[in-house]
Amino acid sequence: GDGALSSQLHRRGFRCLHGVDGSAGMLERARSTGLYQELRLCILGREPLPAPAEHYDAVTVVGALGEGQVPSTVLPELLRVTKPGGFLCLTTRSNPSNLRYKAELEAALGQLERSGAWQKLLAQEVEYWERATIEEESTQGNGYISGVVYIYQKCPVPHVEEG
């Protein structure tokens, strides 16, 4: 994205930030913040993330998991680059035009949890997630779209007994 999240993370002490986006223009906006150590062009869900397996302590996708944006099939790739015991923070909107995607995303999140890939730590509804651009998208008729923040922890690799 444009780097808006990086300024919030930086204020809270995070200093080693890497970012990806499918738009060179958005990467330039992010680069202008001066807060990233690395920025790479990557279309999430269509190509592998430009990082080795188990590379990151935490992975965030904020504002991109939605209808017509990043497909929910990206989840295994996000897990691939997260260290065992690392965290994933994901968000999606709850507006009417995103409800089908949200249901699909939550089914995929649940399937990965049942498989033992990660453990859900939080799924929190946020009523005033972002301003609605049209009244029909307003979740409660208040001019805002609600959303959900999900936090997962990648499960450690199980120890295999030899013998």
Topology:
Layout: H1 4-11, E1 18-21, H2 24-31, E2 38-41, E3 56-61, H3 75-80, E4 82-93, H4 99-114, E5 118-131, E6 144-154
Parallel strand pairs: 1-2, 3-4
Antiparallel strand pairs: 4-6, 5-6
Question: What would a concise description of this structure say?
Answer:
The protein is of the alpha/beta class. It has helices spanning 4-11, 24-31, 75-80, 99-114, and strands at 18-21, 38-41, 56-61, 82-93, 118-131, 144-154.
Structure description:
The longest helix has 16 residues, at 99-114. The protein has 163 residues and is an alpha/beta fold. It has a 4-stranded mixed sheet with strand order 3-4-6-5. It has 2 domains: 1-41, no CATH class; 49-154, Vaccinia Virus protein VP39 (Rossmann fold, 3-Layer(aba) Sandwich). The chain has helices at residues 4-11, 24-31, 75-80, 99-114, and strands spanning 18-21, 38-41, 56-61, 82-93, 118-131, 144-154.
Essential attributes:
163 residues, alpha/beta, Rossmann fold, 2 domains, 4-stranded mixed sheet, 6 strands, 23% helix, globular, SAM-dependent_MTases_sf, MET27 protein, S-adenosylmethionine-dependent methyltransferase activity, Methyltransf_11
| Average pLDDT, all residues | 92
Strand order of the largest sheet: 3-4-6-5
Radius of gyration based on Cα positions: 17 Å
Helix content: 10-25%
Query: Which class of secondary structure composition applies to the elements?
Result: alpha/beta
CATH superfamily of the largest domain: Vaccinia Virus protein VP39
Number of helices: 4
Shape: globular
Do you know the CATH topology of the largest domain?
Rossmann fold
CATH-level-2 architecture of the largest domain: 3-Layer(aba) Sandwich
Secondary-structure element order, N to C: HEHEEHEHEE
User: Approximately how much beta-strand content do the residues carry?
Assistant: 25-35%
Report the strand count: 6
What is the domain total for the residues?
A: 2
